[in-house]
Every structure is written in C-alpha cells, then in structure tokens.
C-alpha cells in the first residue's frame, strides 16, 4: 500500500532536505518536489564530520565514491587532544567504527547529495509564506504559498527547513529556541599558511581544550583534488550582551576569536595568523549556538483525511548542538527512516506511519540532544589541563559508540516487521 504516489513537498534544500530527497528517490517515492528559498544551493559554514552511522546510509544511496573523492584521507585517529597552554599531546580516540568518518566541506557534501537528483525535482527561490489547509471538496489537501506569489499543491509536506523552520511556525509551534551560552567561530586555514610542524599536526583532527572554550580543527578535502585545508571551529562562551547581530550568523573580526585564545599555545597562535592570511577582510563567520527543547509531537494530520499530513525532519524537529557532530547525521538517519516508512507502510493510515516514525526516531534524537550538550561541557571544561575519569580516550569512545555503531536500516527492519512490507525494497 504505502504512499508512493502521493504528492510530497519537501521544504528546505540544505543538507537535511537533500538527504531526505535522496532517501525518497532511493526508496521509490514517485511524486516528490523540493522547494528551497535561496536562488541557488549553498551551504554556509566550515567542515562537517559525517560519522559511520550516517555513512552507511549515504553508501546505500551510492555516494561513497563521491564523498571519499572530496574527503580527507587516511586519518590516523578519530580525534587527538592537546593542552591549550603548551600544546602538549594529551591523548587520542582511535577510529572505532566502519565505514570511517569522512571530513569534508559542507558545500562539497551538498554537491554529492545533488549528483543523483533530477533537476526536475528541484525548485529554487521558493521561500515558504504559508500552508493553506484546504476544505473545498475535491481540492488538494494543502496549497503551499511562496513569497514570490507562486503556489503548489501537496498531499504530504515534509519540513526540512532547520531550527528557524517556517513549517514548524505554520504548525503553530511557537516555542522559543534556547541560547546555549556559546558562539562558534568558523574559518579555514591553508596548510601553506602555517609553519610546517603546525601544518603536519593539523592534518589530524585536533582539539585544543581550554577553560570554557575549545578550538577544533578538521582536516577537510585532500591533496589529490587540491581542496585540502584545515577547517577551524572555535567554541567560545559569550553572553548575549556581546552579540551585536539580529541574525544568529554574522561575520566577525578574527581578532574577536584571538581575544579568547591570546595566551594559548604557539600552535593556536599559528592558526590565528593562518586565518588572517586567508581572509581578505580580516573576518570570519561567527554563529550564536541555539537549540530547541525536544518536541512532544513532530506532525499534524489533515482534518478529515487519513492519508495527508505535515511532518518535521532534521533540525526543524530535533535540533542539537554540534559537539558530537550529529546534526547532519541525525537528519540523514531520519531521512531514510521516513522515506522507507512512507514507501513501505502496509496500509493507508498516514497518522500511524507518522507515529511509528516518531517512536523510532525520537528516543535516539532526544538522547543525542542531551549528550551533545554534555559533550560541549566536557570539551570546554573548568579544569582542562589534563584527562580525568570522565574525559579520557576510553570514556569518550564509550560515549560515542552507541551513536556510531547504530544502523538505522537494521532498526527499521526489526521494529517494522509487522507494519512495513519490504517485498520490493532495495534495503
């Protein structure tokens, strides 16, 4: 039975929306369109770490070669920790799950997600203004109205439009996001702009852990494609009084980051100088980190119809802080879960399908939200000079194993045995 022929509208063309579109095409949903408010596809930010739990899904889509071509190669470990004052090595976490983590530019991941998507599915410059719930006999369940005056009709609406989701707002969810107490500075350093010893160090994933702040370096890209450089991500505690932008994202003077780390080790000073060499205007991205409390319900149904509804996916439903690198990974997992459920549901009761999806995903995404908050506290400690019982390689590996070793496809098969019909599935 399922909902393979229903008109499905995806709102949002970032990593979450494009991940769901790939999942929908892979699962065999036949009538699907994506609407992105920007005039072109683009990802703002620095590097992204896609861990094994999400790579298993992307590999199923056939994206392994594309991602690997754009990712850093043969990293010696998952994460290495160094003292912020003298730069000394503190310890490291081995890569403990397969396929290994892939580190690449966010825009390059978006490029990979676009490769297998027909242009006919993509609609740019479509900023959602409202969703009209139609009551006239014979009318489509939903009419989506965009700011450019255009409209489209849909049976099912998937809100993949992030933590500031317009779909979420249209559903009447008026809760306010919570400021985390941290901002994140994001930029890039070319290895040629670093002293050789520092450049070699930063060809690994390195974390300089300081008091109430830390600087994370992700080696993204590779020499073969000429894209290898270090993504610099600085997590700093700041009060809202110091935030001078109405947006959560702005460009800030590199000197603002430097003020936080002025007395840190020589390697961090090398990073600051490398950022300055690579920035024409002496600025870098700065973002205030917000997160929403977990939602009790991720969907609404069309009144009087059992096969039409609206549902949230990714940050619009389960936003999380970036301290475990799982925001995009959770959206990838949720995307394949929802697409598979819509395609292979045994009856035409969409509400029961939506509820099954939420029951499958919500315990995991709620736990990721909580543990990501905890991981941020551990990474920016009051006493960062050394490892301890809660912050050491073994403890940190154990904190992450349940995330990385999870297989959403296996979970779907096990928990969906009675409600999903997989007889013609590619899974």
TrEMBL record:
GO terms for molecular function: FAD binding; oxidoreductase activity. The chain crosses the membrane at residues 7-29. GO terms for biological process: secondary metabolite biosynthetic process. Residues 8-371 form the FAD-binding domain. It holds the Pfam family FAD_binding_3. Keywords: FAD, Flavoprotein, Membrane, Oxidoreductase, Transmembrane, Transmembrane helix. The keyword Oxidoreductase applies. This is FAD-binding domain-containing protein.
């Amino acid at each position: 039975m399922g909902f393979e022929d229903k008109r499905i509208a995806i709102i949002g063309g970032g990593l979450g929306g494009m991940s769901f579109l790939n999942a929908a095409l892979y699962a065999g949903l036949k009538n699907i369109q994506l609407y992105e408010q920007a005039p072109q596809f683009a990802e703002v930010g620095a590097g992204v770490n896609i861990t094994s739990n999400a790579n298993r899904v992307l590999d199923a889509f056939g994206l392994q070669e594309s991602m690997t071509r754009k990712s850093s190669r043969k990293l010696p470990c998952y994460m290495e920790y160094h003292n912020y004052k003298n730069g000394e090595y503190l310890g490291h976490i081995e890569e403990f799950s397969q396929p290994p983590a892939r580190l690449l530019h966010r825009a390059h991941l978006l490029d990979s997600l676009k490769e297998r998507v027909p242009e006919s599915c993509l609609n740019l410059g479509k900023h959602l203004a409202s969703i009209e719930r139609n009551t006239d006999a014979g009318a489509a369940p939903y009419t989506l109205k965009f700011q450019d005056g255009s409209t489209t009709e849909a049976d099912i609406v998937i809100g993949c439009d992030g933590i500031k989701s317009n779909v979420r707002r249209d559903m009447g969810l008026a809760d306010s996001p919570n400021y985390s107490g941290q901002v994140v500075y994001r930029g890039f350093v070319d290895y040629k702009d670093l002293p050789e010893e520092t450049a070699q160090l930063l060809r690994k994933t390195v974390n300089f852990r300081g008091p109430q702040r830390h600087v994370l370096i992700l080696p993204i890209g590779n020499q073969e494609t000429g894209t290898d450089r270090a993504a610099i991500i600085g997590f700093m505690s700041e009060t809202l009084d110091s935030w001078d932008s109405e947006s959560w994202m702005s460009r800030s003077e590199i000197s603002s980051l430097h003020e936080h780390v002025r007395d840190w080790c020589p390697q961090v000073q090398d990073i600051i100088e490398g950022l300055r060499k690579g920035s024409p205007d002496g600025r870098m991205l700065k973002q205030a980190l917000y997160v929403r409390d977990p939602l009790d319900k991720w969907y609404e149904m069309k009144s009087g119809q059992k096969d039409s509804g609206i549902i949230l996916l990714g940050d619009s439903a389960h936003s999380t802080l970036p301290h475990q690198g799982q925001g995009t990974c959770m959206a990838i997992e949720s995307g394949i879960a929802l697409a598979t459920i819509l395609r292979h549901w045994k009856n035409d009761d969409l509400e029961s399908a939506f509820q099954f999806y939420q029951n499958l995903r919500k315990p995991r995404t709620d736990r990721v939200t909580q543990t990501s908050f905890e991981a941020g506290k551990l990474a920016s400690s009051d006493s960062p000079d050394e490892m301890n019982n809660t912050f050491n390689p073994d403890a940190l590996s154990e904190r992450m194993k349940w995330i990385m070793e999870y297989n959403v496809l296996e979970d779907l098969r096990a928990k969906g045995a009675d409600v999903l019909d997989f007889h013609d599935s590619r899974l």
